[in-house]
Design goal:
Jelly Rolls, globular, about 475 residues, seven-stranded antiparallel sheet, 36 strands, mainly beta, Copper Amine Oxidase, Chain A, domain 1, 4 helices, 3 domains
Length: about 475
């Protein structure tokens, strides 16, 4: 009888778990050697399970195992995945995702459904029944269609350590993580020059077209001087080298610890000597440092560098970067999400404005005529304890307002009902965080404002001056 039961149990196990050594797993056409991770692909309840570590490492994701909780944590870019053995749910960025078959230990290896875990990182999954192959395909990084004649286009997606040539004053140039956005790659130009006044440069060799106008855009952020002291106020410069000589084409003031979007239009001289060295440059102007009789170079970050042909209406010169560069989210806290952030969401139907009204299923819609000095929305009667809140976040869209490049939020309290510049925060559109369907999220931090105390009773939101139309879809007062 015992022998019979043993045969039955063995048969049941084989029916539930079928090792499938003949199953192949490929990623972008290359075979993933899953068996080298201690267990072949396995079929459980009609689902193909593979060693989790094999797939994650093939995708370039990290893998950490907590033996106490029997939990795997993986990171790739800005995404984090957490999975516990035996659970029928795993988590991507704290959002639950169901598994058809729970993760389980087989041959001392954590086995997971290939489809669910690969799709968690945006990887395509197909089953080729003819060859018994799990076909994984990495997501395609969208390509940017640049105008013909583009000289330079560098972003975090294509940075490498060989990004160009740079001046003698630099110690080095490296690819690092954006100090304000986890998982985002940027360039870092470091200097330690102290014995003389020095300019820290990024140079990039290129080929100009005589008479062609170019739009130069980039994002820059001051870092530290040669002694590690943070830069408080400084300036960046843009330059081009034509006919063997360098020509500065604009100086751009910047505050320490913050990204600055920069845009310049420049026309290459018709008489350019194509046989001479041609290059494009970004430089940091030397700053005064206590104890030195000369100014010193300083280190800085760069991102989104682009030099492309420009045939628009704008004339040569320094331009408002928000006209040419989309929102970067630089003014919004890293990882901030207005939908999930703790706070008090304003009922849009209760807003007041002489220029608009609430439209169901659309938001608060308002317009301003050319003669209007301000275009604003009033949130009155809040009665919020300022000690419990720190900021106001607004999700909105500029439908049409050519002159509007900045937005602003004001507040009043029960002890001081005046509306003044001292009680406001202004933010560039280019520093808002992009949202779906052309909307953006601006974040107005009042936590360091001396007047942000007592009871906040009113918020005023001004999306920009000039004629135009705006839609506000969400306003939230953020908890500390």
């Amino acid at each position: 009888m015992k022998k019979f039961l043993g045969i039955v149990l063995a048969a049941l196990m084989l029916a539930t778990v079928a090792f499938a050594a003949d199953i192949t797993v490929t990623l972008d056409g290359e075979v993933v050697d899953v068996e080298s991770y201690g267990s072949p692909a396995t079929i459980v309840e009609g689902r193909t399970l593979v060693p989790l570590r094999a797939i994650f490492e093939a995708l370039g994701a990290s893998v950490e195992w907590d033996n106490v909780t029997r939990t795997v944590t993986s990171e790739k870019g800005a995404d984090t995945i957490s999975l516990t053995v035996g659970a029928d749910t795993f988590y991507k960025n704290d959002e639950p995702i169901e598994l058809d078959v729970p993760a389980q230990i087989i041959n001392d290896r954590t086995m997971v459904p290939a489809r669910a875990i690969a799709e968690a990182y945006g990887v395509g999954v197909e089953w080729d029944a003819a060859t018994r192959t799990v076909v994984l395909t990495s997501p395609v990084v969208p390509t940017v269609e640049l105008p013909e004649g583009t000289i330079l286009y560098l972003t975090g997606e294509n940075y490498s350590d060989e990004v160009g040539v740079w001046g003698e004053n630099n110690v080095g140039i490296t690819v690092v993580e954006n100090p304000d956005k986890e998982g985002d790659k940027v360039l870092y130009l470091e200097t330690n020059v102290t014995e003389k006044q020095a300019w820290n440069y990024l140079w990039y060799s290129c080929e100009y077209v005589p008479g062609q106008r170019y739009l130069i855009t980039y994002s820059a952020r001051p870092a530290n001087d040669a002694f590690g002291n943070p830069i408080v106020q400084a300036s960046f410069g843009t330059c081009v080298r034509t006919n063997g000589a360098d020509k500065g084409v604009g100086s751009h003031a910047a505050e320490g610890g913050a990204w600055k979007n920069i845009a310049v239009i420049y026309t290459i001289p018709e008489d350019i000597d194509l046989a001479k060295d041609m290059r494009f440059g970004i430089f940091a102007s030397p700053v005064e440092v206590a104890g030195y009789d000369h100014n010193l170079a300083w280190s800085f970050y760069l991102d989104n560098i682009s030099v492309v042909p420009y045939d628009g209406a704008e004339e040569d010169g320094i331009k408002d970067a928000s006209v040419f560069m989309g929102p970067t989210g630089a003014g919004v806290p890293t990882g901030f999400d207005i939908d999930s952030a703790a706070g008090v969401e304003v009922d849009l139907s209760k807003l007041s404005s002489t220029k608009g009204s609430y439209v169901k299923d659309k938001g608060f819609v308002f317009e301003a005529a050319e003669e209007d000095a301000d275009s604003l929305v009033i949130i009155d009667g809040l009665n919020l304890d300022a000690s419990k809140y720190c900021a106001v976040a607004v999700e909105f869209k500029k439908v049409s307002a050519a002159k509007a490049y900045t937005s602003q939020a004001f507040f009043t309290t029960t002890s001081s009902d005046s509306v003044s510049e001292e009680k406001s925060v202004r933010q560039l559109y280019s520093d808002a965080a992009p949202a779906a369907d052309g909307f953006m999220v601006s974040y107005y931090d009042f936590s360091e404002n001396a007047e942000w105390k007592g009871t906040v009773n009113m918020i005023r939101f001004d999306p920009g001056d000039g004629a135009g139309e705006w839609i506000v879809t969400k306003i939230k007062v953020i908890e500390k």
